[in-house]
């Protein structure tokens, strides 16, 4: 889906790692939350509260989930992170992403 309809946009930015990762929260009409953001090259570790769908829209990165090896996305792709977990990123180029928070 390249476009989101009937949403509420939270104007205040989420800023991480001294501004190298930023996003804006979007709330869909059904209450589902997504964040749309940009990551600059660097290495990062994030933790999750809810299960997350990380959709890479454009860029080049490697990601590592707990107990797994490094995986690569060049261009676009999707990976899922369990709730109450951590994941690591090695971002090689400016990367555009959409994160969806999944309540189970």
Estimate the global geometry from the Cα principal axes: globular
> Which structural class do you get from the secondary structure elements?
mainly beta
Mean of the pLDDT scores? 95
Under the CATH scheme, which class? Mainly Beta
| CATH architecture tag | Sandwich
> Major beta sheet, specifics?
7 strands, antiparallel
Number of strands: 11
Radius of gyration: 13 Å
CATH topology (fold) name: Jelly Rolls
The CATH H-level superfamily is: Jelly Rolls
Give the percentage of residues in beta strands: over 45%
Residues in helix, %: under 10%
* N- and C-termini, Cα separation: 22 Å
Sketch the topology as an H/E string, one letter per element. Answer: EEEEEEEEEEE
Ranges where pLDDT stays below 50 over 5 or more residues in a row are: none
The count of domains is: 1
SS field, number of helical segments: 0
Walk me through this protein's architecture:
It comes from Peribacillus asahii. This is Pyrimidine/purine nucleoside phosphorylase. One of its GO terms (molecular function) is uridine phosphorylase activity. Keywords: Glycosyltransferase, Transferase. InterPro entries: Ppnp, RmlC-like_jellyroll, RmlC_Cupin_sf. This protein is mainly β and about 100 residues long. The chain has a single domain, classed as Jelly Rolls (Sandwich), CATH 2.60.120. It is about 0% helix and about 60% strand. The chain is built from no helices and eleven strands. The chain has strands at about 5-10, 15, 20-30, 35-40, 40-45, 50-60, 60-65, 70-75, 75-80, 85-90, 95-100. The strands form two sheets. Strands 1, 2, 3, 4, 6, 9 and 11 form a seven-stranded antiparallel beta sheet that branches. The mean pLDDT is about 95.
């Amino acid at each position: 889906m390249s476009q989101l309809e009937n949403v509420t946009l939270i104007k205040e930015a989420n800023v991480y790692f001294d501004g190298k990762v930023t996003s804006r929260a979007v709330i869909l009409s059904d209450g589902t939350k997504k964040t749309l953001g940009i990551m600059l090259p660097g290495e990062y570790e994030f933790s999750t509260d809810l299960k997350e769908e990380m959709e890479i829209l454009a860029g080049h990165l490697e990601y590592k989930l707990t107990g797994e090896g490094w995986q690569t996305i060049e261009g676009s792709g999707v990976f899922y992170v369990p709730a109450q977990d951590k994941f690591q990123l090695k971002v090689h180029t400016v990367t555009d992403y959409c994160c969806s928070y999944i309540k189970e």
